[in-house]
Design goal:
Elements: H1 10-21, H2 34-38, E1 43-53, E2 56-64, E3 75-76, E4 79-81, H3 89-101, E5 108-113, E6 117-118, E7 124-132, E8 147-154, E9 164-171, E10 174-185, E11 188-192, H4 194-208
Parallel strand pairs: 1-7
Antiparallel strand pairs: 1-2, 1-4, 2-3, 2-8, 5-7, 6-7, 9-10, 10-11
Length: 221
């Protein structure tokens, strides 16, 4: 990624280094056995793309098209299922972000990949953390068949109680919590919930090196 034409934010640089050094996360190693283990259809990846604006860190989010058969109208991170040509989780996330919102992979500095989250259908979803150092270089181009709109939310909001609600859900393995975050921007209110909220809570906890102001999971009985 070319960094000659802009100044990297010291704040974002410091926080991104914390991700790189975290023992809870890792980047794919092309010399390892990952290509063998990677060959599975039950795999997906999402891109947590962060940038700084007005001294705040933001994450890029999308609202899915109402014409889709799945996740209709939901707020999601850019991402999707593995394609045949994908060689690792970073490739999945960057390809999907390019297809969905026109984000050039060359603009994204990938700093780490989080441990997977299990979704419906036993799909493992791997969050890929990337930094968009040059926000002005990104002009969104939406794939309107998949994406209705794009917006940016303060990353730290996923550690705060403000504009947050929760719901207790019964799963086969026991009870769990669903978190709902409301975010107003451009005269619209978006609700971030379900796995997207869960992933962003976990990522923000690592990024800011502090727990959320609320109980993220059901207390152990």
């Amino acid at each position: 990624m070319d960094s000659n034409n802009f100044t990297r934010s010291p704040k974002l640089l410091h926080l991104s280094n914390q991700f790189r050094q975290s023992k809870h996360v890792s980047l794919p190693n092309t010399k390892s056995t990952q290509p063998t283990r990677f060959k599975t259809t039950n795999r997906a990846a999402v891109l947590i793309c962060l940038f700084e604006e007005h001294d705040d860190i933001y994450v890029i989010l999308t609202k899915r098209s109402s014409n889709l058969s799945s996740f209709t109208g939901q707020v999601l991170l850019p991402g999707g299922r593995r394609d045949e040509g994908d060689t690792d989780d970073v490739r999945i996330a960057l390809r999907e972000a390019h297809e969905e919102i026109g984000l050039d992979p060359k603009l994204v500095d990938v700093v780490t990949v989080l441990e997977p989250f299990a979704s419906k259908g036993n799909v493992n979803v791997y969050p890929v953390i990337g930094i968009l150092w040059d926000r002005q270089a990104f002009t969104p181009v939406l794939n309107t068949e998949e994406v209705e709109s794009i917006f940016y939310a303060p990353f730290e909001m996923f550690l705060k109680n403000k504009n947050r609600q929760q719901e207790e859900i019964e799963f086969q393995a026991g009870k769990g919590l669903f978190h709902y975050f409301d975010h107003e921007t451009n005269n619209k209110v978006y609700t971030i919930w379900a796995m997207t909220a869960t992933i962003l809570i976990a990522a923000a906890t690592l990024f800011y090196q502090r727990p959320p102001d609320f109980q993220p999971r059901m207390p152990k009985s």
